[in-house]
């Protein structure tokens, strides 16, 4: 199947090493989303939500490996038990805070993606559907964050 | 960009009218995910999580309209302020409970998708990252659910 970007995400992050691991750890960092004019009408009412999902393409990810160490620990985990960018189909997902909308431009905070990332979709974050209090953190547990290793894709 | 299914999602839902609106409203319904053998290694450690995101293709969605009524009310909303299937790029997202793994087969509950839906990606649901207590329900508010209208795509 063939997908086309509906816009792009612009951030302060120019290299993978600068890029935070998850939006919650880049919550102060502002991003600008430019939706292509052709799709701008689809943004109607988006400003009623405080948070949105961004689905985007990991367009500068490295080699795909199905089992690999992640950014959170040194143990190898399956790519589907991880949010690591180097994955089949290369679709990324981030939950960001929607700060402001100006026509086809969205200002968000917490965008943990590389500058110029192609945007595939936007969906509203709806706590009624998306907060699952009983869910477990799996192998991630309560691991403290650590500095991102250099040269690890 | 070109994507390939990594597997398929099998459910009891054969028609759009049978299909629930959100996973939380189909929580008893079991689904079976068959990941293609080639990608099965990527499932390592997925069983440590209680919930997972499924990203999939809305392969039987109708005509794309950027502003349309949704399943929750009769007001027209922008497609990006909605989870409606008929959207550019046609990527769907559901959070489901992972009940069991048998090699490349995942048994889940809450799969609100049509039988045979092509699967694009699986990501772990990680409450540390994904529960945003302060988020608003936007226009969805606390609207009660209503029966799904027939013949509305």
Notes on the protein architecture:
The structure is a homodimer of 153-residue chains. Chain A is 3% helix and 31% strand. Chain A is mostly beta strands. Chain A has one domain: Elongation Factor Tu (Ef-tu), domain 3 (Beta Barrel). In chain A, the strands form two sheets. Chain A has a six-stranded antiparallel β-barrel. The first copy, chain A, has a two-stranded antiparallel sheet with strand order 4-5. Chain A is globular. At the A-B interface, β3, β5, β6, β8 and α1 of A face β3, β5, β6, β8 and α1 of B.
Q: What is the helix tally of chain A?
A: 1
Using the coordinates shown, work out and report the CATH topology of chain A: Elongation Factor Tu (Ef-tu), domain 3
- Structural class by SSE content of chain A: mainly beta
Query: What is the CATH C-level name of chain A?
Result: Mainly Beta
| Total individual domains of chain A | 1
- The CATH superfamily name of chain A is YaeB-like
The counted number of beta strands of chain A is 8
Low-confidence stretches of chain A: none
**End-to-end separation of chain A:** 26 Å
How much helix, percentage-wise, in residues of chain A? Answer: under 10%
Question: What spatial form of chain A do the alpha-carbon principal axes imply?
Answer: globular
Q: How would you sum up the major sheet of chain A?
A: 6 strands, antiparallel, barrel
CATH architecture of chain A: Beta Barrel
How much β-strand is present in the residues of chain A? 25-35%
Series of secondary-structure elements of chain A, N-terminal to C-terminal:
EEEEEEEEH
Q: Taking all residues together, what is the mean pLDDT of chain A?
A: 90
Q: Name the assembly state.
A: homodimer
Q: In what order do the strands lie side by side in the largest sheet of chain A?
A: 1-2-7-6-3-8
Q: Could you tell me the radius of gyration of chain A in angstroms?
A: 16 Å
Most residues in contact, chain pair and counts? A-B, 64 and 64 residues
């Amino acid at each position: 199947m063939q997908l086309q970007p509906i816009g792009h995400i612009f951030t302060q992050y120019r290299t993978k090493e600068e890029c935070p691991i998850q939006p919650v750890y880049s919550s102060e960092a502002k991003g600008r989303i430019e939706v292509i004019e052709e799709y701008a009408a689809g943004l109607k009412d988006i400003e009623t939500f405080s948070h949105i999902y961004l689905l985007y393409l990991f367009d500068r990810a490295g080699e795909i490996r199905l089992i690999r160490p992640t950014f959170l620990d040194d143990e190898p985990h399956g790519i589907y038990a991880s949010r690591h960018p180097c994955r089949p189909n290369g679709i990324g997902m981030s939950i960001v805070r929607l700060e402001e909308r100006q026509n086809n431009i969205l200002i968000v905070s917490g965008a943990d993606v590389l500058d110029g990332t192609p945007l595939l979709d936007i969906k509203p974050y709806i706590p009624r559907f998306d907060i699952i209090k009983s869910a477990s953190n799996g192998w991630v547990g309560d691991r403290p964050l650590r500095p991102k290793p250099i040269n690890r894709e």
